[in-house]
Amino acid sequence: MFSRFLILCAIILSSACSTTYTIESEPSGARIYRGDNLGNLKYFATTPYSDTSATAKRWGGTYIQLRKEGYIATSVSKISMTDVVGVDQRLRYSLDTDILIELVDIEKAGDLNAYYDYLNKYPNNQYKERMYDRMFALVKATDSGSEYERFLEYFSDSREQVYPLIYQLFSRNSPSLNESFEFLSRYPHITNFVPEFYDRLIAMIKTSADPVKNYYELLNRYERLVESKPDIIKNMVGLIQESKGDIDKQLRTLLSRYPASMQYMPARIRLADIGPEGMKVYQVIAYVKQGMSAAILRQKILNAGVAYKEFSFSEISELNEIGLPQDITAAMLEVTSRIAAEEKRSRQREEELETIARQRAEERERQQQQQQMQAQAQAQAEEKSTPVECLKLVAAIKVCQQTGGFLEMICKRTAEASFDCPLPLSDLM
Predict the structure, then answer these.
(1) Which among 189, 235, 315, 409 could bridge 311 via Cys, Cβ 3.0 to 4.6 Å?
(2) Residue 373 lies inside a defined structural domain of this protein
């Protein structure tokens, strides 16, 4: 029994008096360099490394670095390790792929697809700016629209350089107007980078069989041109006025779709569009032409209670010329004046209410100030009329209150016995 005990002790002692040192890396096969200082690193072993030693290797405080071809070497670091025999030590490192080496190989091959594979593999790599010029040169050499588009997928901020080349490629075959519309739909921002495309498109529309229709087509596809290129609307107004058919109807259609065209409309259209929906000037004129009584129309205008405009004399003359009876014009002026007067009275009433509210607030503030002044005066008077011994007692009691508990009770009793105050303590506090 005793011999078994000795064997067990020997096993325990032998395991407690040895240390396993392990150095691992991901990937494995990295060369380990170690030294006592930064400038004296020497090859030591290759990962994975493992060694069991009965004595301490005393690596703590020395320096280590792992290197492997095709990977970025780890930074030189100081080993943090205890030198106690019996405590296993493990160091683990991870090496990143040196993607520049891979990129150099691609640059030597000049393979555009390999570049894209590289970008897919390392989308946020630090060499993207370096790749741009080389890839752009390869893309230009292809002279392919699809390659230009593919390039833009990876370098979206390069439209200023790429769009002019796409346009040059497109314009070689003298595209038709419809093809130009399709091109604009595909590249909606092309006019920002290729102004001549817009000029060419407008020239084609002007010489087309139905320029107004084609202008509508352009705006349907690219509505922001209404604001960025106002001359389009201006041209449409001019073309409609020179066309045949119901010119005013066409102008009102344009106005309803693009309110910004109002500034280019002739005076009769601007005036005809005034008023609430269903009772606009041009709609009232239509009712008159249909034979509706002027008295009825006048009453409807007054009942609607919606302002028209304070027409000038020249505008009244223009309204008369486009077929609006003067008594109906008078009704529009009347309801406009009435509403203006009501709005004025409403504003005045709001101003009066605001003035009243402000005065009341000022009065409340003044009363609060008076109350505060009276309270301060009363406190000062009470302080002057209170005997000095009472003031001392109050001060002592306040000090006692800071102690708390049993000490506070003893302190208060001592204070009451120390000062000869004729007033009850309850009146003082």
Answers:
(1) 315
(2) no
- Separation of alpha carbons 390 and 424, rounded Å: 9
What is the residue range of 145's domain?
A: 98-173
CB 362 within 8 A of CB 396: no
Return the pLDDT at 420: 78
Residue 370 within any structural domain of the chain? no
pLDDT digits (tens, 9 = 90+) for 216-228: 998 888 888 888 7
Instruction: Report the run of H or E that residue 272 belongs to, with start and end.
Output: helix 267-272
Q: What is the pLDDT of residues 376-392, one digit of tens each?
A: 877 776 655 567 778 77
Q: What domain count does the chain have?
A: 5
- Please tell me the predicted confidence (pLDDT) of residue 12: 41
Note whether 280 and 224 are same-domain residues.
Answer: no
Q: What is the enclosing helix (H) or strand (E) of 423?
A: none
Q: Which amino acid is at 410?
A: I
Give the residue among 153, 121, 118, 148 at the shortest CA–CA distance from 136: 148
Q: Which H helix or E strand runs over 67?
A: strand 63-67
Question: Based on the domain organization, do 34 and 82 belong to the same domain?
Answer: yes
Residues 6+ apart with CB under 8 A from 415: 393, 396, 397, 400
In whole angstroms, what is the distance from residue 258 CA to residue 312 CA? 26
Q: Are 66 and 93 in contact (CB under 8 A)?
A: yes
Residue 215 and residue 187 share a domain: yes
Pairing of strands 63-67, 77-78: antiparallel
